[in-house]
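yo, Receptor kinase-like protein Xa21 is done. seq:
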Amino acid sequence: MDSIKHTDSFSLKVVLPIIAIVASLIAAISIMGFWKGKQNKQSISSPSFGRKFPKVSHSDLVRATEGFSTSNLIGRGRYGSVYQGKLFEEKNMVAVKVFNLETRGAGKSFIVECNALKNVRHRNIVTILTACSSSDSSGNDFKALLYEFMPQGDLHNLLYSTRDGDGSSNLNNVSLSLRLNIVVNVSDALAYLHHNHQRTIVHNDIKPSNILLNDDMTAHVGDFGVAAFKSDSTTSSFSDSLLADSSAIKGTIGYIAPECAGGGRVSTSLDVYSFGIVLLEMFIRRMPTDDMFKDGMSIAKYAELNLPDNMLHIVDPQLLQELHICYETPMDLEKNEVKCLLSVLNIGLNCTRLVPSERMSMEVAAKLHGIRDKYLTTQKKEDKYLT
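structure:
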């Protein structure tokens, strides 16, 4: 009996306090975890934009887009759809990107795009007007971003849509000077993101459909939903955008740098490669996913095999027609247009080297400015002489 009493006494004096302490610790940890999760959820659903961004509600956007009508649908992306709509007192036309939150990674993409654009100011990067993070009429989470509307659409449509919309193969006539201006605009935007911003931003999805055109055909880089950031030059690692799905491919097939297949680290050279592909595509006017590019042949390899001697055989025939150049005659390397085309395509090749360290940086923008300005200046002199 004495031993039993002793055991009970020991349990009361030692074991029970220990159990109480452990229970308290578990409760404290649970509360901290709950609070941290709540804070994270709040930070995801309510990005801080500051007072300079006007507030809009779900109902405002419903009215602006006529109930997100398909007649106002102007584009679809990986994580949502884009509508045009009239908003604010001035009834200005805006682009409304509505995120499909049922798609894995869409919520993170919303945050990434907010963080990428809220402090970015550049003439060749889309302007974000505000964000909407609220609930719809059914009480479901709703997230949208509002941008300046780009009335001339995107570069993909410019290159591949028909003039009459009748389904014929009669593509829009895109002049050499316009192509030069667009490629300079995009290079300026990427140079700013990579070299002249308070933090390095890697876009991760440069392609024609993400290059938007305003009324005067000035190009703007858009869709930063899979961007990555580096805070300062002393930091070697980037914060990935798709934290919810680290296995997701960042970028689009045909424009992704080859090192991505092996899980290479995020770097500015990824954007350089994609930019080089877009540049080659603009002047050859073939998509990198064209049926002719298979069995080891890519648009970059195609250009490399044909430059310089057979350049006129691969350049968009509409350009040759505009420039009064016939590919059946010997190429005049002293001709202003020929020198311009060769210089631009060589930059495309230097941006698409297989080894990242061998690629040019986006400081190549200065070279493209020089090529364009020299072509336009010489062309004006020649036109003046002919008249």
